[in-house]
Specification:
Blueprint lengths: L4 H15 L8 E6 L4 E7 L4 E7 L11 H18 L6 E3 L8 H11 L5
Parallel strand pairs: 1-4
Antiparallel strand pairs: 1-2, 2-3
Helix pairs in contact: 2-3
């Protein structure tokens, strides 16, 4: 029996989450990608709290250009928010998506703006 696309991603997601965990000092940068938007959040898994979030729906993010450009802008916005809060190091959680396209662009945007992972 073959898996559906979402089941396959869920399995990969669980496999990734076995080894990746966020703390208050080094939170997990989790990414969610829908067909239209992209979301990122910093999560402290010890207390189970979302520290901050950024998405392509926010006013600060320009929706001009391709989806890859928008994802890059979301990554930069996430990094700016994190650096303001004093968070410099994070662990990147691709949430079962391939490290390619919008996910890669978001990660590179966060790195360019000063996050370390």
């Amino acid at each position: 029996m073959s898996l559906t696309k979402s089941d396959r991603r869920q399995r990969i997601r669980y496999r990734i989450r076995k080894s990746i965990s966020g703390t208050a000092v080094k939170p997990r940068l989790s990414v969610f990608r829908s067909n239209k938007e992209i979301y990122a959040q910093l999560i402290d898994d010890v207390t189970g709290v979302t520290l901050m979030a950024a998405s392509s729906r926010e006013k600060e993010v320009s929706t001009e250009g391709t989806n890859v450009d928008v994802a890059n802008a979301v990554g930069k916005l996430m990094a700016e928010k994190a650096l303001k809060a004093g968070i410099e190091n994070v662990t990147f959680d691709r949430s079962g998506y391939l490290y390619h396209g919008r996910i890669k662009s978001l990660a590179e945007g966060a790195r360019e703006a000063g996050l370390k992972f």
